[in-house]
Design brief:
The chain is of the alpha/beta class. The chain has three domains: about 5-140 and about 265-325, FAD/NAD(P)-binding domain (3-Layer(bba) Sandwich), CATH 3.50.50.60; about 150-260, FAD/NAD(P)-binding domain (3-Layer(bba) Sandwich); about 340-445, Enolase-like, domain 1. Helices cover about 30% and strands about 25% of the residues. It is built from twelve helices and 21 strands. The protein has helices at about 15-25, 40-45, 50-65, 80-105, 155-160, 175-190, 210-220, 270-275, 310-325, 355-360, 410-420, 425-430; strands at about 5-10, 30-35, 110, 115-120, 120-125, 130-135, 140-145, 170-175, 190-195, 225, 230-235, 240-245, 250-255, 255-260, 260-265, 295-300, 340, 345-350, 365-370, 385-390, 400-405. Strands 1, 2, 3, 4, 5, 6 and 16 form a seven-stranded mixed β-sheet that branches. Strands 17-18-21-20-19 form a five-stranded antiparallel β-sheet, with helices on both faces. A hairpin with a 4-residue loop joins strand 12 (about 240-245) and strand 13. The radius of gyration is 24 Å and the shape is globular.
């Protein structure tokens, strides 16, 4: 049997890579992780964690606005963006240290530098080669910028997290979850936000009613949505920028943020030299056990472009470690995985959209509730919470739960367990709700919408 420096070398110390590496080491493998940046990956350093901290900061605008309706007298409020960013960065430093300690305590070696695959069992890091029985690719993804004139003037979500100061006006290009999240953050902090999207509503791929509801609620909060619109070019215009649209109109702004998608981070890894198969989007192709076309090479997380969520990468990393080093072959079940968009208002969903359910199951029953949240009833704010259940008419099984409103993520996380267990609408109906809460609405919806054609 060949002798190697390690049993496993992981390229990339993000969520999936760290989980796979530390669990493999816990199972007795000799493991090394190579990383050119800090440990933590997109989620900890450039995604979920810093973004959620900014979302928390932005939410105080709503709290101050509502305070007077509950009898509070609040003085003139002001926000110091630099304080928020500095505090956020301090927390990221703390988390980076925790991740490094987790690896060290589990006996995982950290190789500082960018990893590049030399052959089926060799990785080069900072000019030095290291061999391993298995190589794991876990480099994640990176923001994608379209090739249009003036794109060099735009920033991505990476830079948006560390702006030195807030602009007065901002254009966010994109209708996905990153775009709507940053649009909500900056709008709440007093920036005039224009959101430019190609589609008719935000969050393409989500349930249609949810998409329309979020678009309406974002508009109520002062975000101007330019739907079915494409940017042709960006030009520097004095201290600001001018965006020319496909229909000829110009949009003036102080800052342009592009959030038009992410691509697997495979450039420079040397994958072509050893024949690792990739799809037309540059994603590494793997089987259900995370194996690539090269027997000794595996991949997890966003680099595979399957379901790009941190908890999914963690599950894939865990499955890989169990398969290779714990004598317990394991795959990940990708059905009924809940997800949230930390827009303002918040969005969360689990299961199938109405369109998906009709395509897969035929006849479905739809239950919808729209109501004014209790928190704003003492004020003059015009807000609506939206909830929707999609039910298989034949089996009564709940196929999808969708929500727009405060605490949507916290509520839908619990519903995800119910869907995973195959809960029926009858079981939802027989569940006694907690009153008064928004969540109880999911177990009190009794009247289904008329079906198409009825």
């Amino acid at each position: 049997m060949a002798e190697y420096d390690y049993d496993l070398i992981t390229i990339g110390a993000g969520s999936g890579g760290v989980r796979a590496s530390r669990m493999a080491a816990k199972f007795g493998a000799k493991v090394a992780v190579c990383e050119e940046d800090r440990v933590g990956g997109t989620c900890v350093l450039r995604g979920c964690v810093p973004k959620k901290l900014l979302v928390y900061g932005a939410h105080f605008a709503d709290e101050f606005d509502l305070a007077s309706s509950f009898g509070w007298t609040v003085g003139e409020a002001s926000h110091d963006w630099c304080t928020l960013v500095n505090n956020k960065n301090r927390e990221l430093d703390r988390l980076n240290g925790i991740y490094q300690r987790i690896l060290r305590e589990n006996g995982v070696s950290i190789l500082n530098g960018r990893g590049r695959v030399v052959d089926d069992h060799t990785v080069e890091v900072a000019g030095k080669t290291h061999t391993a029985a298995h190589i794991l690719l876990a480099t994640g993804s990176w923001p994608f910028m379209p090739d249009i004139p003036g794109i060099e003037h735009a920033i991505t979500s990476n830079e948006a997290l560390d702006l030195l100061q807030l602009p007065e006006r901002m254009v966010v290009v994109g209708g996905g979850y990153i775009a709507v999240e940053f649009a909500g953050i900056f709008n709440a902090l007093g920036v005039k936000v224009d959101l430019v999207i190609r589609a008719d509503a935000v969050l393409r791929g989500f349930d249609e009613d949810l998409r329309v509801t979020l678009s309406e609620e974002m508009t109520k909060r002062g975000i101007t949505i330019h739907s079915e619109c494409v940017v042709r070019s960006i030009e520097k215009d004095g201290k600001g920028y001018s965006l020319r649209m496909a229909h000829g109109d110009l949009l003036e702004t102080d800052l342009v943020l592009y959030a038009t998608g992410r691509r697997p981070k495979t450039d420079g890894l040397g994958l072509e030299t050893i024949g690792v198969a990739m799809d037309d989007k540059g994603a590494v192709v793997v089987d259900e056990y995370n194996r690539t076309s090269v027997p000794s090479v595996y991949a997890v997380g966003d680099i595979t472009n399957r379901m790009n969520l941190t908890p999914v990468a963690l599950a894939e990393g865990m499955a890989l470690a169990n398969t290779l080093y714990n004598n317990e072959p394991m795959t990940v079940d990708y059905t009924n995985i809940a997800t949230a968009v930390f827009s303002q208002p918040e969005v969360a969903t689990v299961g199938l959209s109405e369109v998906e359910a009709r395509e897969k199951h035929g006849a479905v029953d739809i239950y919808v509730s729209r109501f004014r949240p209790m928190k704003v009833t003492l004020s003059d704010r015009d807000e609506r919470t939206f909830m929707k259940l999609v039910v298989d008419r034949k089996t009564d099984r709940v196929l999808g739960c969708h929500m727009v409103g405060d605490d949507a993520a916290e509520i839908v996380q619990g519903l995800a367990i119910a869907l995973k267990c195959g809960a029926t609408k009858k079981q939802f109906d027989s569940t006694i709700g907690i009153h008064p809460t928004a969540a109880e609405e999911f177990v009190t919806m009794r009247e289904k919408l008329p079906d198409h054609g009825e």
